[in-house]
Input
Amino acid sequence: MDMRELILLRHGKAVARGDGDDLMRPIKDRGKRAAQRIGVWMARQGLIPDHVVASPADRAATTAAKCLKAMGQSAGGVILDQRIYEATSEEDLLAALADCPGEARRVLLVGHNPGLRHLLAFLSGSSASDSDKAPRLPTAGLAQLAMPDDWSLLQPGQATLQAMQLPDQLPNGFPFPSPHGEELRDRPAYYYTQSSVIPYRLENGRLEILIVRSSQNKHWVVPKGIAEPGYSLQSSAAKEAREEAGVEGVVDEEALGDYESPKWGASCTVTVYPMRVWRVLRDQDWEERHRGRKWVSPQIARLLLREPALGPIVNMLERRLGAG
Output
């Protein structure tokens, strides 16, 4: 009989339940790190999923994304399934598994207890009354199961539990420069590759640059962020420009330059691209409108931008455009 694999992952530690919407209850920082450690472990074991389905709750969707990106995989293809959030027994989760494409040989399902606990007990052959004796999944805990090929009518005991992995059993550091690297750093390897844009426009032949306030409103910056797995440096930078500066435009293929930025106990390499702005979002459509933004000349930009390395890069933009 052909075998498939199912990996059950409980969401990382979330903030305590309050009076707000439970679906939006966010994951804690230590929950994010735990999900990332599990992702690195999966990559090192060669357990890269080809189908990922998760509860739409913020804490589960974030766990899935953090886990995948720590593997070096894109999180763009995660399927959110309401049945996983609502499951209190194995029934809804079995229905979700039945809908997984048959060609998916390794499936990652990210959800909640008690549903996951009941599903694990069912698949491994425990009766419902004995589910309390089944292996438990603490937050960010993982169970790896060998499964039959057909998931349309799964029966009790059809799976074999191959491994359990808990984040507390893994190193706190993250291997660099990949999940298989030997150096350990404070964050997953992809955090240390970043990209940035200098948003610009030409007004009557004169170059203007858009600068924004930092997240804490302490100084002036240009959009910058982590180059996430599955995205090019340019597309990652364009995404940051929309979120941080509320602008959209065309990012050049050729970078203006790069610089090193100390962070997370090491140094991030930041590659900077020019982006010609063709649309400025209205304040109500700008995700981080609390920052504030303004158009300035290159001379003023060099004076106001906190990062010294951006001065020569602004000079390069002026030379490339031939604008003064």
